[in-house]
Design brief:
Elements: H1 20-37, E1 41-42, E2 48-50, H2 51-54, E3 67-70, E4 77-80, H3 85-93, E5 103-112, E6 124-133, H4 138-154, E7 161-165, H5 169-177, H6 181-189, H7 193-199, H8 204-213, E8 215-216, H9 217-225, H10 231-250, E9 255-259, E10 273-277, E11 286-293, E12 299-307, H11 308-314, E13 323-326, H12 332-340, E14 344-347, H13 355-361, E15 366-369, E16 372-375
Parallel strand pairs: 1-5, 7-9, 13-14, 13-15
Antiparallel strand pairs: 2-4, 3-4, 5-6, 6-12, 7-10, 8-9, 10-11, 11-12, 15-16
Helix pairs in contact: 1-4, 1-11, 4-10, 5-10, 6-7, 7-8, 9-10
Length: 376
């Protein structure tokens, strides 16, 4: 067997080195600060849970992506979290069952998945998110989208856009027309209008119109308004229009597109869903939407998850801090004063013959020698 290089990691995993690791920590802190300013209180679920709780309710959708193993302590199957939203829903339904609703919770951490995707090959993903539990109002949907947009804008994501979808719209049309949704789901997912027309039966005409309507939110809503829809689908259309109207006021700089038939990745959602994009990143910056939290006593909920690895692709590169080389004998009180002024100090650990050369070697921009600052 050939010797394995000590730096080799499993596919989809990587080390984050300076300055990227620090940049990620700063981004996470800034995102969480925005969520806290809107009243979202932080929780910290464990990395591993028992399989039956981790994969129950909304967590069932993540079963194919979850690493599972036997716990040597309990001899029960456990899973490594592949998404934090189901964990937060569990906390709300158990530990915070009696807390006042609506309940606003936030979180940040790492998740691990069995496989990566084409746009996101990483299997370990950093997440920052928020869940609004206990409200089924339009205002809650608007808050989830607008708070996520504010957080992304705060960390410097440019040209932000959100793609809104309503996964319940197509099923409502299929039920009303007696068409099994399984007949047309694959064709809709692949945006195949010809197959929709061939397989859709009584639903073919409205589904084809929905498929063709995708685009800027206002234009899509105008197209939807002209369609004759069954009552349940018409109610979903009205809610979608109200969300867009309120978002124009709550997040005036946010560009909105609308895809009435998109469903992939939102299989467990029960209402409005959304995905954030920017031209400078590969893949989505984050996604979220409405779902049902809890099992024994289900609650309406909405929320979002932001992906730190993609966000780091989109934000400006961090500026390196001012690094100051402290020559031997620098008084500790002077070093503390310099750090209070914003310097990152790198102290000499022994005799130095050429302070300038040593500062340059250690990546410092300045030297502090005999009480004076010198630029390298």
């Amino acid at each position: 067997m050939s010797e394995q290089h000590p730096a080799l990691l499993p596919v989809g995993l990587r080390d984050l080195l300076p300055p990227e690791a620090e940049a990620e920590a700063v981004v996470v802190a800034r995102l969480m600060a925005v969520l806290a300013s809107h009243g979202y209180e932080r929780v910290k679920p464990p990395l591993i849970e028992y399989e039956e709780t981790l994969l129950s309710g909304a967590g069932a959708a993540m079963a194919p992506e979850t690493f599972r193993l036997m716990d040597p302590m309990s001899q029960r199957m456990i899973g490594v979290r592949a998404d934090m939203t189901p964990q937060v829903a569990r906390i709300a339904a158990s530990r915070l069952k009696t807390a006042p609703r609506p309940l606003r919770l936030s979180y940040a951490g790492q998740v691990l998945r069995v496989r990566g995707g084409q746009l996101r090959p990483e299997r370990q993903v950093g997440q920052v998110g928020a869940e609004l539990i206990g409200s089924e109002t339009v205002a809650a949907d608007v808050e989830a989208v607008s708070v996520a947009a504010e957080a992304l804008s705060e960390v410097g994501v440019p040209n932000l856009s959100v793609d809104l979808t309503m996964p319940t719209l197509v099923p409502a049309i299929c039920r009303a027309t007696g068409v099994a949704i399984e007949q047309v789901r694959d064709a809709l997912d692949h945006k195949d209008a010809a197959r929709v027309a061939a397989l859709g039966g009584a639903a073919a005409a409205p589904l084809g119109a929905l498929l063709a309507a995708a685009g800027p939110a206002k234009r899509t809503l105008a197209t939807l308004a002209a369609l004759e829809l069954p009552p349940a689908a018409a109610a979903e259309r009205q809610r979608l229009a109200e969300v867009v109207a309120r978002l124009e006021k709550a997040a005036p700089g946010l560009r909105m597109t609308l895809d009435p038939v998109e469903n992939r990745g939102f299989e467990y959602h029960t209402g409005l869903t959304f995905t954030f994009f920017t031209p400078g990143a590969s893949g989505e910056l984050g996604r979220g939407g409405r779902y049902v939290a809890g099992n024994g006593a289900p609650e309406p909920a909405t929320g979002f998850t932001l992906y730190t690895d993609t966000i780091l692709q989109a934000v400006p590169a961090p500026t390196r801090p001012r690094r100051l080389f402290l020559t031997p004998g620098t008084p500790p009180e002077e070093a503390r004063r310099l750090r209070r002024e914003g310097w990152v100090t790198i102290a000499a650990l022994g005799r130095v013959d050429d302070a300038i050369a040593e500062a340059r070697r250690l990546g410092c921009t300045h030297v502090f020698e005999r009480g004076a600052l010198k630029e390298v």
